[in-house]
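Person: Show me a sequence?

Helper:
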Amino acid sequence: MPHLIIEYSANVADVADVQKLVDVMHDAALATGTAALDALRTRAVARDHYAIADRDPSNKFIAISARLGAGRSDDEIDAFVASLAGALDEFLGDQQKTIMLSVEYQEIDPARRINKNNLRAVVADRSKES
């Protein structure tokens, strides 16, 4: 059920490989043990229209929303968010100077969600074939 949604100002692509960012964040989420491989979805969405701080064109943002199902302890959530933030910091390195960063946890209410995951069986079958 975990979702990582990476929103970023389009000018981030001028200084960072966005697909690599998606891969780094996906791997960081998996490494925590909090997100199951057969349920994790990571995606990035460029925002073309934005205003950041003083509107200087060199200003950028990356905002990561981590949406997870209920039932995790505060310690698990804190470690998950810290792991994502650490991976983001490491990925960006010196590029961070003009990038506003945020990582936010959002709990998904199971009573307000309809979810169907057909990939669980497919992923399980693939792992048996390997």
Remarks:
- The chain has one domain: 3-129.
- The longest strand covers residues 60-69.
- The chain has a mean pLDDT of 93.
